[in-house]
Every structure is written in C-alpha cells, then in structure tokens.
C-alpha cells in the first residue's frame, strides 16, 4: 500500500490549469522529493493532496482509501502539512504553537505528546520561548514539531529548507530522514538537486504541470532529465561518495 496515489489528477484556477493529468505515487515509509522549475505546480500539488485546493478532475487515494471518504478531521489524522514561508508572528510560546497539532486528536490536551514532538524535533529547550522571537530555522523546526505532534502517518512539506542557513538546512533534512526511520511517509518540495540526491529515496519531477519523471531519486535526476526540465547543462559527479550536480 502506498501513502498517496493520484490518477489523472488535474487542478488549477479559473483561467489556468496548473496540474494536468498527474499520476504520482508517494511510497509509504520513504522520503519523496518534489522538484521542478518555478511554476511547475509543486505547491499546487501539495495543497490539492490535502484538499485545500479543489481538484478539477482525477482521483486521490490516501493509504489505499479514496480521499473523499475522509472527513476534514480524519484526513488531518492521516496527513500533516507545513506550508511554504508560514507566518509565525503569533504571540504563542513554542509549546503552545506545537500543541495546535493535537487538534485532530481525541486527547487534545496531551502535554506529553507536545513534549515528545519537541524532543524529536530537537527543540525542547525552545519550549518557553515566544514564536515571534525565533530565527527562521527555529520557526521552521517549530512548524515541523507541530506536524509531528499531529501524529499523522504522512507529512507533506512545502520548501522546508528554503532561505535557511546551511546548519538549519542540514538539521531539518536529518530530522526528515529520522521521521522516515520512525515509519513516517514524508514528501517535501525541495529545490536543491544535491539535497535530493543526498537525502531523498524517491523524486517526482514536474514540468509544466505534468509529471516528467518519477521513481528512485538517482534515476530521475539524470543529466539528460535536468537538461530537459531546467534547460541547463550539468554534470553529475561523485564527491566523497555522494552524487552532486555541477553546473
């Protein structure tokens, strides 16, 4: 059983179709990267997968069940989502913010789950801090901790490491890998091709609202595919046992 599958999925806006007949698979227990040029439909795809964006046509299944069979609350129990560039200037402590992830659950006030999420995200020491006082990387870790606190089986993240310094990028990527090792299914929009080759199991490569290629990350991110999708000449080389993309 896969975490999420789509069949002939199309979605967009009144004057423009963004996703066009997309068939994708997000495998259970894997880290899947979603990549592609700006405007290729990456964010629209994630928002359609959580029903925030209505689809024009097609089917979505979550853990083998039609997505339309889930109530909003039951879908939130299956999928947690962290949006791109989330505005976190609310006057909450980190603990209070992370506790918002408990809303789909029957034990909303379970403080142990909040502390566990903070611990898994590695930010237990930030619990009493105000969200508005945090750095960008700390805010992103807090958003992921809130998603962890939701205890959903699937995590979808829109650009979780964009605009962060290398230290916080590495910390978040290692956290996502750790969540997969704990049995979660994670899909994230990522721009860095080197990051995808280093951390992702699978990759869904989009171009012009369609799936150009998907599968094992190393097999999807080839020189030929990158030239076709991003219109760049590049070389993929091994450096210290890891594949990197050289422009």
Blueprint (SSEs and pairs):
Elements: E1 4-13, E2 16-22, E3 25-26, E4 31-35, H1 42-49, E5 55-62, E6 65-66, H2 72-78, E7 79-82, H3 94-99, H4 111-121, H5 136-149, E8 154-158, H6 166-181, E9 185-189, H7 193-199, E10 202-207, E11 210-216, H8 217-220, H9 223-230, E12 235-239, E13 242-246
Structural account:
It is a single chain. With 247 residues, the chain is α/β, with parallel strands linked by helices. It has 9 helices and 13 strands. It has helices at residues 42-49, 72-78, 94-99, 111-121, 136-149, 166-181, 193-199, 217-220, 223-230, and strands at 4-13, 16-22, 25-26, 31-35, 55-62, 65-66, 79-82, 154-158, 185-189, 202-207, 210-216, 235-239, 242-246. The protein has a 6-stranded mixed beta sheet with strand order 7-8-9-4-10-11, sandwiched between helices. Strands 1, 2, 3, 5 and 6 form a 5-stranded antiparallel beta sheet that branches. Strands 12-13 form a two-stranded antiparallel sheet. Strand 1 and strand 2 (16-22) form a beta hairpin. The model has no long low-confidence stretch (mean pLDDT 94).
Low-confidence stretches: none
Count every beta strand, where a strand is a DSSP E run of 2 or more residues. 13
**Inertia-based shape:** globular
Distance between the termini: 38 Å
Elements, N to C (H/E): EEEEHEEHEHHHEHEHEEHHEE
Rounded mean pLDDT is 94
Taking strands numbered 1, 2, ... along the chain, how are they ordered across the largest sheet?
7-8-9-4-10-11
Assess the beta-strand content as a share of residues. 25-35%
**Percent helix range:** 25-40%
How many individual helices?
9
């Amino acid at each position: 059983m896969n975490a999420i599958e789509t069949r002939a999925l199309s979605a967009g806006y009144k004057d423009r179709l963004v996703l066009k007949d997309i068939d994708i698979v997000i495998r259970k227990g894997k880290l899947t990267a979603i990549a592609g040029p700006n405007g290729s439909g990456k964010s629209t795809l994630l928002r359609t997968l959580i029903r925030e964006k209505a689809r024009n046509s097609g089917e979505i299944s979550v853990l083998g069940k039609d997505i339309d069979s889930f109530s909003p609350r039951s879908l939130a129990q299956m999928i947690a989502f962290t949006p791109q560039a989330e505005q976190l200037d609310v006057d909450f402590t980190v603990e209070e913010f992370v506790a918002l992830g408990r809303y789909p659950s029957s034990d909303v006030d379970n403080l142990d789950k909040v502390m566990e999420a903070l611990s898994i995200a590695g930010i237990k020491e930030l619990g009493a801090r105000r969200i508005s006082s945090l750095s960008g990387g700390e805010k992103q870790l807090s958003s992921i901790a809130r998603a962890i606190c939701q205890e959903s089986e699937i995590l979808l993240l829109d650009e979780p490491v964009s605009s962060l310094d290398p230290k916080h990028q590495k910390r978040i990527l290692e956290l996502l890998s750790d969540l997969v090792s704990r049995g979660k299914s994670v899909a994230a929009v990522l721009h860095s091709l080197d990051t995808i080759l280093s951390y992702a199991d699978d990759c869904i490569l989009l171009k012009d609202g369609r799936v150009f290629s998907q599968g094992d990350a190393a097999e999807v991110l080839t020189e030929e595919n990158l030239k076709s999708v991003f219109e760049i000449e590049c070389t993929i080389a091994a450096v210290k046992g890891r594949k990197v993309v050289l422009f």
